[in-house]
Amino acid sequence: MSAVRYDALVIGAGFSGLYMLHRLRELGLSVIAVEAGENVGGTWLFNRYPGARCDIESIEYSYSFSEEIQQEWVWTETMPAQPEIEAYLNFVADKLDLRRDIRLNTRVTAMAFDADEACWHLDTDTGARFTASHVVAASGILSVPLEPDVPGMDSFDGASLFTACWPKAGFDLAGKRVGVIGTGSTGVQLIPVVAREAGQLTVFQRSAAYTLPWDVRPLPAAELDDLKAAYPAIRAAQREHPVGAARLSAFSLLLDMLARPPIKSATREEQLRAIDEHGVMGALNWGDVFFDIEANRMAAKLYGEAIARIVKDPVTAAALVPTHPFGCKRPIIDQGYYETFNRDNVTLVDLRSGPIRAVTPTGISTEQGDHDLDVIIYATGFDAMTGALSRIDITGRDGASLRQVWQDEGPTSYLGLAVAGFPNLFIVQAPGSPSAATNFVAALEQHVEWIGDCIAHLRDQGHRTIEASPEAQREWIEHTTSLVEPTVLAHPSCNSWYNGANVPGKKRRYMAYTAGIPEYRRRCDEIAATGYPGFELA
Ligand code: NAP
């Protein structure tokens, strides 16, 4: 098939891709979005598992660029569940008439930069080929599920379900013996819901979670109307907030902790009062936990005491206490997670006392014993930040392979937006961007607008290419790394998808920019206003 040439091609039609497509179209460019899924929605299309929900309030986890969209759309809960976000993104696609420029069920498999023509040639799994002067990868930071490498997975006679590609029609778990592997954000959301449905639930936990209880409530129409009327102030506050979410969220909670007194100078009575009054939240809510590993361990011990007040069986309660520092993994909020372990039909298997040996035809065999199951649910995480683009064969200038660059140098980029050696390729929320440490929607809007303005500038000034310089890239990564060095995030015992530790062989580096979106925006705007230093425009 012959290639069609566009000014720009967007990879992905999730939250980032939809807005990028709209923005570039508004600039008068010919643009197409190519999406592997059967519909728009990205991560909010695939992660349909029971209990899937955002942990940021709906009125902040939504596009701010269109007054019409934010006034018309009706959120029904304070924190939106997956079906509502999926429906919202479909509403946006229709409202902005985006579908006519989206090619669904089409996965980009390879792309190569043509230096003579200053464009990218792209191949897809349908055989359709495209050529575009600019490519914007809006392929998501948590879009490639990580299948665990457990021997015998294929031998299981029951049903194997993966949270990141949950069956569209749902799955009836009623009365079944269900095993869940994984207790990250996904597992913690899923487990209470499955426990209510399944006959028997066995949770296989390798790392215990830090998770804080949270009330999600319906948004009455009158309250939503008031919020909509206050949108100018809400969006302004959000824009100035380091995590892009000024109202309460898991992220803003962490930020608020920095202003709290240190646990190290709290008396035993003060510590106990904190958990008397605020439960598990009170155990962690101290100003020194992010910077002092000893303080962090004190908080973890107090956290264990708070769990023991909720979970009745002392052995289970002790097994639920995390052994990694608080803050290393993504903060989690939950609805009834610890209470779930008081149910008669729920059993916790602490894999720290004996790991999984294999999946067998009848269930899961661990070094502590065997468990017969009808269903195994894998909530085992993602190859984050670099996973989606590493699975595309991307060849830049002089044959450089992006997969190889990230393998050899680690997850690198300039400004979390572009990689040296890959001209005219922008990445929405690449490693080194605020992304994973913030409200993703606020972060992506800033990226989409900056990228759109940059492409318009190139067009207006007659530049054919833009490319990050290796020096600017090295300095940027040094800067982002230096930001986390004084914190527990740099501690060797911090293993998470944030630093690639969950993927065997991935080079370890903390991948998010942690100085906040306003400071990040200031830097990006300054670079645009001063002729794009750190980039070569030709
Ligand atoms: P995750 O945080 O990486 O958790 C994966 C879990 O699977 C961990 O408990 C991990 O244990 C376990 N695991 C992986 N391989 C295993 C194996 N072979 N044997 C036993 N256990 C294994 O992934 P996630 O829960 O999908 O969350 C990823 C991110 O998605 C979150 O951090 C968040 O950013 C986003 N998310 C957000 C929400 C929300 O908004 N509420 C909900 C879901 C997801 P180890 O920790 O020991 O590796």
Q: How would you characterize this protein structure?
A:
The protein is of the alpha/beta class. The protein folds into two domains: 4-40 and 98-144 and 384-537, FAD/NAD(P)-binding domain (3-Layer(bba) Sandwich), CATH 3.50.50; 153-220 and 245-378, no CATH class. The chain is built from 17 helices and 20 strands. Strands 1, 2, 3, 4, 5, 6, 17 and 18 form an eight-stranded mixed sheet that branches. Helix 1 packs parallel to helix 15 (440-461), helix 9 (268-284) crosses helix 10 (293-310) and helix 15 packs parallel to helix 17. The structure holds NADP nicotinamide-adenine-dinucleotide phosphate. It is an enzyme of class 1 (oxidoreductase). GO terms for molecular function: phenylacetone monooxygenase activity. Its cofactor is FAD.
Structural descriptors:
538 residues; alpha/beta; FAD/NAD(P)-binding domain; 2 domains; five-stranded parallel beta sheet; 17 helices; 17% strand; binds NADP nicotinamide-adenine-dinucleotide phosphate; flavoprotein; FAD; oxidoreductase; FAD-binding_Monooxygenases
In short:
With 538 residues, the chain is α/β, with parallel strands linked by helices.
CATH superfamily of the largest domain: FAD/NAD(P)-binding domain
Q: Which word captures the global form?
A: globular
What's the total count of β strands? Answer: 20
What is the CATH topology of the largest domain?
FAD/NAD(P)-binding domain
CATH class categorisation of the largest domain:
Alpha Beta
* List of distinct ligands in this structure: NADP nicotinamide-adenine-dinucleotide phosphate
Low-confidence stretches: none
Count of spatially separate domains: 2
* Mean pLDDT across every amino acid position: 96
Q: What profile does the largest beta sheet have?
A: 8 strands, mixed
Terminal Cα span: 31 Å
Helix run count: 17
Would you identify the CATH architecture of the largest domain?
3-Layer(bba) Sandwich
User: Helix coverage percent of residues?
Assistant: 25-40%
Share of β-strand residues: 15-25%
Oligomeric form: single chain
Give the helix/strand class: alpha/beta
What's the Cα radius of gyration? 23 Å
Cofactor: FAD
Family: Belongs to the FAD-binding monooxygenase family.
Keywords: FAD, Flavoprotein, Monooxygenase, NADP, Oxidoreductase
Domain FAD/NAD(P)-binding: 6-204
